Amino acid sequence: TNVTVGAPPEEDFAPTEACRTYPSPPCPSNGVAHLLLYRLHTGSEPLELDNRDLGDALGAPSIVCNWPTTGQSYVTSFAVTANASWGQYGRCHYNGTNYCDASTGDQVGRQSPQGLPGVPRQGQCSENADRGAWYSFPAGGKCRPGEAVGSRGCTWSARPLRTVKASCVEGWKFRAACQEEMGHTLYQAKSAAIIQRALASSNPLAGGCPDVRPQPERLEEVIV
């Protein structure tokens, strides 16, 4: 093996395409989108979207299928109005406060679930009809109550529609649908349909789940 001693070539330190274009510019659209989105959460979480991630019907299974649920796990549907000039998707976390690790200013972030390849910019501006989409909501873009999207530059508003227990969703053979579809197809139609029916009505004959009021998780003190 030939060994060369000396300074490495400068191209080794050249920024990648992702770094050169970070954050990704907004999509070229001035329209307003009306979305029906879903979020898995605990009872301790307020029904707000500030610095949080959600998925549409096809995007939600890739989250709900992968996360364990407890007796205090819930799924809530939200009606969202947003500026459709989507920004880079931000992965949002909680460390005492909610925050997102990437964003394009105050634009709502968007990408295909898990950043699946096959579409430009991980689905930020693509239709994503075959795979669904994830969305991130920067707190700075939230419209005030009663404001239309675009007022003062605000980019989104949302209201919760229904909340059901995650265990009820699972009772409709959701996990079996996950096992059948996860890793085998981009189009998780069966799992998505179960979530849609569960949140569409409380009628069990239509696959619906009853409305519930989220209850905070109870923390038990253990003395050793």
From TrEMBL:
<protein>
    <submittedName>
        <fullName>Uncharacterized protein</fullName>
    </submittedName>
</protein>
<feature type="compositionally biased region" description="Polar residues">
    <location>
        <begin position="105"/>
        <end position="114"/>
    </location>
</feature>
<feature type="region of interest" description="Disordered">
    <location>
        <begin position="105"/>
        <end position="127"/>
    </location>
</feature>
